[in-house]
């Protein structure tokens, strides 16, 4: 995602700082990978990046006594670290170049990558994201997807080691998505509204509320039942967080028994609702578009 120019003056340092906020892989992880490449070769590094369609940056100012580390940095600086497609490709580079490294050399890098929200699948050996991610198309056409991206980043970092934060962020992901939908539809957003009200208003804005009068499959009893259940997901998640199992409210003690499985439940539930909303918002054939045209 490109940095957006803010009103007034915006220097290069401000742009770089805002881009780093949305980085899907941290600078520390990238640095550890670069250091690992001392154990690779120039030809292997070049082939791995070029096969994923990356070219080295021509403006890299990094200096190092190692040609291999310098070359690696040049390629790393050509990656847009806030772009899911770029990161998916660079993960394949990581897999290829780190494959076969002894644990004593690769453990720091892999642990740092895990903190960023990525693990190696034991069956396939592929590096994969922990938890779900939205399709790029769902976010690229939004006026401002920064809040959604921020919640997704928090979830990726917390889903295993900090389930309370993951649950709290999942609730905030629904809240941010609902507000984005209303904003995209040109409707007022009440910052004081509770989550059930925001969910209802957002679904009504897209003709997805069970009470909405729409055409096609969205009007069927089966889909209305599913939509009712999806609404319940968002409301139930808010209740889970409000009962002290998610961040956002101070509590006298840490909730007992809360684990990664509860975080996965909350995150996947939130993702189901948010993905439906964003897909419907982007769908050129969605019933809400027909309704909008007819009302003009």
Structure description:
With 296 residues, the chain is an all-alpha fold. It has two domains: 24-129; 136-286. It contains 13 helices and two strands, in the order ααααααββααααααα. β1 (118-120) and β2 form a beta hairpin. α2 runs antiparallel to α6, α8 (146-158) packs antiparallel against α9 (163-184) and α11 crosses α12 (260-282). Mean pLDDT is 82; it is low at 1-19.
Return Rg in Å.
22 Å
Report the end-to-end length measured between terminal Cα atoms.
34 Å
From the helix content, strand content and strand pairing, which structural class follows?
mainly alpha
Unreliable runs, pLDDT <50, ≥5 residues?
A: 1-19
Helix content range of the residues, please? 55-70%
Beta content comes to under 5%
Number of helices: 13
Domain count, please report it: 2
Q: Characterize the quaternary organization of these chains.
A: single chain
Sum up the structure in keywords:
disordered N terminus, mainly alpha, 296 residues, 2% strand, 13 helices, elongated, two-stranded antiparallel sheet
What is the compact description of this entry?
With 296 residues, this protein is mostly helical. The protein has 2 domains: 24-129; 136-286.
What does the secondary structure layout of this molecule look like, with pairings?
Layout: H1 12-21, H2 27-36, H3 42-51, H4 67-76, H5 84-98, H6 103-115, E1 118-120, E2 127-129, H7 136-140, H8 146-158, H9 163-184, H10 195-205, H11 221-245, H12 260-282, H13 287-295
Antiparallel strand pairs: 1-2
């Amino acid at each position: 995602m490109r940095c957006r120019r803010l009103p007034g003056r915006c220097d290069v340092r401000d742009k770089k700082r805002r881009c780093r906020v949305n980085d899907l892989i941290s600078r520390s992880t990238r640095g550890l990978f670069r250091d690992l490449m001392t154990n690779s070769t120039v030809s292997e590094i070049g082939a791995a990046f070029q096969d994923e369609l990356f070219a080295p940056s021509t403006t890299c100012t990094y200096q190092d006594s190692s040609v291999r580390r310098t070359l690696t940095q040049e390629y790393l600086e050509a990656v847009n670290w806030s772009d899911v497609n770029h990161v998916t490709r660079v993960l394949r580079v990581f897999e290829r170049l780190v494959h076969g490294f002894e644990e004593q050399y690769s453990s720091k890098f892999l642990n740092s990558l895990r903190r960023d929200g990525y693990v190696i699948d034991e069956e396939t050996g592929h590096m994969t994201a922990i938890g779900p991610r939205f399709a790029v198309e769902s976010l690229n056409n939004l006026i401002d997807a920064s809040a959604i991206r921020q919640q997704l980043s928090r979830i990726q970092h917390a889903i295993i080691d900090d389930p309370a934060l993951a649950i709290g962020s999942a609730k905030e992901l629904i809240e941010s998505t609902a507000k984005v939908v209303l904003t995209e539809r040109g409707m007022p957003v009440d910052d004081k509204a509770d989550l059930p009200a925001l969910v209802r208003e957002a679904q009504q804005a897209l003709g997805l509320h069970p009470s909405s009068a729409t055409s096609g499959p969205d009007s069927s009893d089966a889909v209305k039942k599913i939509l009712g259940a999806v609404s319940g997901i968002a409301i139930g998640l808010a209740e889970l967080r409000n009962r002290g199992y998610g961040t956002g409210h101070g509590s006298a003690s840490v909730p007992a028994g809360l684990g990664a499985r509860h975080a996965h439940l909350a995150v996947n539930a939130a993702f189901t609702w948010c993905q439906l909303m964003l897909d419907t918002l982007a769908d050129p054939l969605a019933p809400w578009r027909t309704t909008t045209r007819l009302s003009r």
